[in-house]
Write a structure and sequence with these properties.
The protein contains eight helices and 13 strands. A hairpin with a 3-residue loop joins strand 2 and strand 3. It folds into two domains: 194 residues, Ribosomal Protein S5, domain 2 (2-Layer Sandwich); 147 residues, 2-Layer Sandwich (Alpha-Beta Plaits). The strands form three sheets. Strands 1, 4, 5, 6, 7, 8 and 9 form a seven-stranded mixed β-sheet that branches. Helix 5 runs antiparallel to helix 6. Helices cover 34% and strands 22% of the residues. The protein is of the alpha+beta class. (3R)-3-hydroxy-3-methyl-5-(phosphonooxy)pentanoic acid binds next to helix 4. The site of (3R)-3-hydroxy-3-methyl-5-(phosphonooxy)pentanoic acid (PMV) has 15 residues, from helix 4.
Length: 366
């Protein structure tokens, strides 16, 4: 049994030897959402350890649905054997990503070698569109794997379950560790945030001000193509980035600012931090060696439209960006009607096939 604890170290995530004979054939399902970072994670150390603390809103509608079918092996070997089906079709691309993930997590879930797995997965949003499908995908798979661990060891508590799900999701894709819970998650050790850890995300302990309850995020799909530079390459370039040190200090200061803003309901200050973070992320890309640009002309057109409309309407909308060209438009629930009218009238023209996904704050994986 796991004792009461608040902060866990790596060793505490290694499962005790478990008797797999009690589960010969079983299936587990999970739905996990994407998330949008308000304070961005960009740069990491060995072992998927972030170079600064990040904070995100968990989304609700952009989810990955995963089913993990487990078949206990007749003849054991020392490898994790699995096949991956994406939207009903065998998928070799995902298979190699998940193989790397399994290699990283085997130490923590050694009983996985006792099974043959079939992974069936699908998204409610376009894959590789700049919406973090790796975040929701790795989070959903991690929750399924933890369901198997819990079935083998019913003693594990809900707190341990969530922390370990986040811990292993992090080893698949850093930002995935922020998709297990919601509506606001912090990942990365920060002196001002009690119980924060580099190893997993934690749900914020404070009450979100009513101004931010059900906060909306409309994702404007500017470019749905594959990204030209992957996030892992981008993170790697921060190791030798001339402005890295200052950036990490700034991000950690922004964490304290945004926490105070989310508690107080300070909508105008929220705009300043969130937009600064989005543009700083892309500024880091543009000043890396080699440099690269992931924004598209329509990304900038949308940003300028948002600024002009915000000035004339005095609404509280602001934008965020991930590592891609798409624009996340964030706004309070009570401004939904006006903001969505503006999207329809002024922004859809800049989206590929006029596509937008309306989402809002959610509560994590199920
Ligand atoms: O989780 P990764 O390795 O794909 O990195 C994602 C980084 C950003 O989405 C750009 C920022 C963030 O904190 O989510």
């Amino acid at each position: 049994m796991h004792k009461a604890y608040l902060i866990l170290t790596t060793a505490q995530f290694i499962s005790e030897p478990l008797d797999t004979s009690k589960i010969a054939k079983e299936s587990f399902s999970s739905t996990a959402p994407s998330n949008i970072a308000l304070v961005k994670y960009w740069g990491k150390k060995e072992g998927q350890i972030p170079t600064n603390t990040s904070l995100s809103f968990t989304l609700k509608n952009c989810v990955t649905q995963t089913e993990l079918k487990c078949f206990r092996k007749e003849i054991k070997n020392n490898t994790i054997d699995f096949s991956v089906f994406f939207e009903g079709q065998l998928n070799a691309g995902f298979k190699s990503k998940i193989a790397t993930f399994f290699d990283r997590i085997l130490t923590y879930l050694p009983f996985l070698v006792d099974y043959d797995f079939e992974i069936h997965t699908q998204n409610t949003f376009p894959h590789s569109s700049g919406i973090a499908s790796s975040a929701s995908g790795m989070a959903a798979l991690s929750v399924c794997l933890m369901q198997l661990e819990k079935a083998l060891n019913p003693n594990i508590s809900k707190g341990y379950f969530n922390k370990k799900a986040s811990f292993i999701a992090r080893l698949g894709s850093g930002s995935a560790c922020r998709s297990i819970e919601g509506p606001v998650v912090i990942w990365g050790k920060h002196p001002a945030i009690k119980n924060s850890s580099d190893l997993y995300g934690i749900k914020t302990a404070f009450d979100l001000h009513p101004n931010f309850k059900n906060y909306c995020d409309s994702i404007l799909l500017v470019d749905k193509g594959e990204k030209t530079v992957s996030s892992s390459v981008g993170h790697g370039l921060m190791n030798s980035h001339p402005f890295a040190k200052e950036r990490f200090i700034q991000a950690n200061n922004h964490i304290e600012d945004i926490v105070a803003i989310l508690k107080k309901g300070a909508l105008k200050k929220f705009i300043t931090i969130v937009e600064s973070e989005a543009l700083t992320l892309h500024a880091m890309m543009m000043t890396s060696n080699p440099y690269f640009v992931l924004m598209k002309p329509n990304t900038l057109k949308i940003i300028n439209k948002i600024w002009a409309f915000r000035k004339s309407s005095n609404l509280n909308m602001c934008f965020s960006l991930d590592a891609g060209a798409n624009v996340h438009l964030l706004y309070p629930q009570n401004e939904k009607e006006h903001t969505q009218e503006f999207i329809q009238k002024d922004l859809l023209q800049y989206c590929e096939n006029e596509q937008v996904i309306h989402d809002s704050l959610g509560f994590g994986a199920q």
